[in-house]
Design goal:
The complex is a heterodimer. Chain A is mostly helical. Chain A has one domain. Helix content of chain A is about 80%, strand content about 0%. In chain A, helix 1 packs antiparallel against helix 6 and helix 4 packs antiparallel against helix 5. The longest helix of chain A is centred in the middle third of the chain and has 28 residues. The longest helix of chain B has about 40 residues. The chains are: A mainly alpha, B mainly alpha. At the A-B interface, helix 3 of A face helix 1 and helix 5 of B.
């Protein structure tokens, strides 16, 4: 990782910590907040992709797909923000799905890291914890307040993990 | 130094053809992606949006003349089934139509079929016309303002114009590929 990437990781980690704290504080009323956060993240991702298209991907082979992806992301974000009535259970199912997905990605990455003899234990731990919490959330789906607490705990946990992994020394892989 | 096993043909027309075929593949994939997103949006809007499917149901119910001898419960069930079947049928038709265009374009881009197809180009022209009318309507509503001006945001306009330009670009690229191939052979 470069210095700038490390700063970015720490920044995102601190943001995740703050959001976790807010979610714990407002308990069940934080559902609209979760939706707003989600739509904002999607819009930012869309704008980033479109910016990338106009600065760089315009000149790449197959760069047009990035433009289309950015436009779809923006529309998805705006549309998600415009939903007025969403039953909490859908949000919970969606969030558990995302959590399970990111856990799977972490586990696969740690396997990859193990194959090239780079540090893998922390990543495996993180992925396992996320996967277990996703399963627990699906089990306790009926009591919404408890699930919010579990989610905020996981949020804070992954924020801390992000900050920790930003300060670690990474081996640089060179292609010979 | 080892030489490559397969030397690519890097003549001028070959490079141009490769570029066009790549663009065609991306355009086909984008057609599929836009249509899937549209259908998804309709479904989410119908079940979670401002005006849900049950609102339409309650709007429609008093307008229907109930034949004599039929209890009201059966009429309600029939109306529900008709509404759901209509929504699902239309969405499946739209999906299959765009899947046909997109898959054919991707096949031509990957060169997995030898025969040159015309039918999907006709479908593409129809799509160009329909999306142009939709886009024109949206722009008119967005800038002039009508009774439902609130429903059309800038993001919708962006997606509609992108999908329209995508259809036009797909047609242009296919024409370019055909012309270049003919002049090369």
């Amino acid at each position: 990782m470069t210095i700038r990437q490390r700063f970015q990781q720490v920044f995102v980690g601190v943001l995740m910590l703050a959001f976790g704290a807010v979610m714990i504080a407002y308990d069940e009323e934080s559902y609209p907040f979760i939706i707003a956060l989600y739509s904002l993240a999607l819009e930012l991702q869309g704008f980033r992709l479109i910016w990338y298209f106009f600065t760089m991907a315009r000149l790449m082979v197959g760069g047009k797909s990035i433009l289309y992806r950015g436009i779809l992301f923006i529309d998805f974000g705006v549309f998600t923000g415009s939903l007025v009535f969403v039953p909490q259970i859908y949000i919970l199912i969606y969030l558990s799905g995302t959590l399970a997905l990111s856990a799977m990605i972490d586990l696969l990455r740690s396997r990859e890291a193990r194959a090239i003899h780079s540090p893998w234990k922390l990543k495996t731990f993180q992925g396992a914890v996320e996967l277990i919490t996703a399963v627990i959330c699906l089990v306790f789906l009926h009591s919404t307040a408890m699930v919010v607490d579990i989610f905020s705990a996981v949020f804070i946990f992954s924020g801390v993990m992000r900050i920790v992994s930003a300060f670690r020394r990474m081996p640089v892989i060179t292609v010979s | 130094m080892r030489t490559a096993a397969c030397l690519p043909d890097n003549s001028y027309t070959e490079i141009r053809l490769r570029r066009y075929r790549d663009a065609l593949t991306i355009s086909g994939a984008a057609v599929i992606a836009f249509s899937v997103w549209d259908v998804l949006k309709v479904y989410i809007g119908l079940f979670l949006g401002e005006k849900t499917l049950s609102d339409y149901f309650t709007d429609l119910l008093p307008k229907i003349r109930i034949p004599e001898g039929v209890p009201e419960e059966t009429m309600q069930i029939v109306l529900w089934v008709v509404l759901l079947a209509g929504v699902i049928g239309v969405s499946i038709f739209i999906l299959l139509y765009h899947l046909y265009i997109g898959l054919n374009a991707m096949q031509e881009g990957h060169r997995t079929v030898k025969k040159k197809k015309i039918v999907y180009l006709v479908c593409d022209v129809l799509s160009i016309l329909s999306s142009a009318t939709v886009l024109f309507q949206s722009i008119r509503v967005y800038f002039v303002g009508g009774e439902d001006a609130r429903q059309i945001g800038l993001a919708t306009l962006l997606v509609e114009s992108a999908s329209f330009l995508n259809y036009v670009y797909l047609f242009y690229v296919v024409l370019k590929i055909r012309i270049t191939e003919r002049s090369a052979s």
